[in-house]
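User: Structure please.
Assistant: Input sequence and predicted structure:
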Amino acid sequence: MTFILHIDTSLEKGSVCLSVDGQLLQLITSTEQKEHASFIQPAINQLLHRENITAKNLSVITVTNGPGSYTGLRVGMATAKGLCYALQIPLITIGTFEIMTLAAIDILKNSNKTIAPSYLFCPMIDARRQEVYTALLNQQLDFIKKPTAEIVSENTLIGQLNACKIYFYGNGSIKFKSVCHHPNAQFINVSFNASNMITLSCQRFAEKKFADLAYSEPFYGKEFYSVIKQ
């Protein structure tokens, strides 16, 4: 049996889940915002205890590597790397936009909505002011537009919107919705957690697409900076 621990601390509320052979066993989601450091280790221990297994039963650990919360990504990555190093098992990293898009596709399919091959997906994460972290993907999770930080306006992705329907989602899409009135722009509510990592994690595990344990680091979307008071 292949037990996989999945960790997501990319946004406000963290979550961890345990799967076996591609099937969800347990999911725990934080009830508090931005409390990843105090949540993650007790949650992992609780998962293992509920299933009556130990960390030594784990085959691999997967973690979201961004973009997202600076602190959250660091906490998740440090936890995953530490466990992998101690257990001598591989690490898999998955981008936040990929997980968000998988969740969006699931929501549309469960709503019996037709997804034409030409439709694209645009996750947006709030980056303060009028800026968002965003990307553009197709249904196969290929990046049509690579992850970037940009300021949204009525002309954002205008060329792609003129060509096809695009689904927008994520907490940053609220900003874009206020300025975008293009008929091909479809805004949907998408929530996601660590369980949305399972399918892609199993695929990468089977293909042995492992991250470099020593050099893996979060993708923040843009450089971190802080104000120094004079």
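The beta strands are 3-8, 15-20, 23-29, 58-64, 91-94, 120-126, 131-137, 143-151, 166-169, 185-187.
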